[in-house]
Amino acid sequence: MRWKHDFGLTIRQTIVWLLMLVLYIIFLSIIMLIYPGSFLLPFGLVLIMAVVQYFFSDKLVLMSTGAKIVAEDEYPELHGIIERLCKEADLPKPRVAVMQSPVPNAFATGRNPKSAVVAVTDSILRALNREELEAVLAHELSHVKNRDILTMTVASFLAMVAFLIMRFAFFGSLFSSRDSAPIIIIAIVAAVVGVISMLLMRVLSRYREFAADRGSAYITKNPAALKSALYKISGRMQAVPAEKKKEIEGANAFFIIPAISGKSIFELFSTHPPLEKRVAALEKLEAEIKK
User: Fold this and answer.
1) Does the residue 220 lie in any domain?
2) pTM recorded for the entire structure
3) Does any domain span residue 2?
4) Is 267 a residue of the active site?
């Protein structure tokens, strides 16, 4: 089973990118039309934030989760699995990190394959058998191969710009001696654009998870193992105390399954697809392998 693109998924992602580009152009045009050059400061701040996020994403995520880089002699089996999977995926071996947490989970970060980090919690190492762990790690390596950190950094740029401009415009209307009507209009437009771009970003994030699941199946040739792992992680998660989940809630978007997953209307605000849809996609891949 060789690595190949899901063209339906690629087309859907392309449509989302085009929608974000159109939204971005409209947003900039409205701002330049009403107040040319007035909002260069928030654009500059967001650009700096995006650059920092891109170049230091691995360090920021490790700091926020408390995950520690571990040497090969500390976790030889974990390193061995990742090394073998990297050969299958044609990837350089990433740094390996372990996070002390009762929440069974895993994540990947880093701006490109050379700077990547794959991390697991100590509890997931105890919860999964070898095949399931391989499938989860292959999912995370697929995120690295697909350069998803870069993808989501670029996608989040518009939302950050919109929300920051909304704040600048709102406070500007409160303290400005000029006619505040145009500034209020910009604040409203920025709020609408921010919400829409956030929704589009969440759609893109869900597509990224489907793509990583598919990548795991191609690397391990064992989609059934990932399906089993997803069920097991989801089941174990329910037994974890709420306060322990909240401790790592900030890294939800990075995890293979969110530590806290609310019931959003039509799943619009979810960063991950529902478990049932992921399992259904993996079952299709199982059938594809058996042909």
Assistant:
1) yes
2) 0.83
3) no
4) no
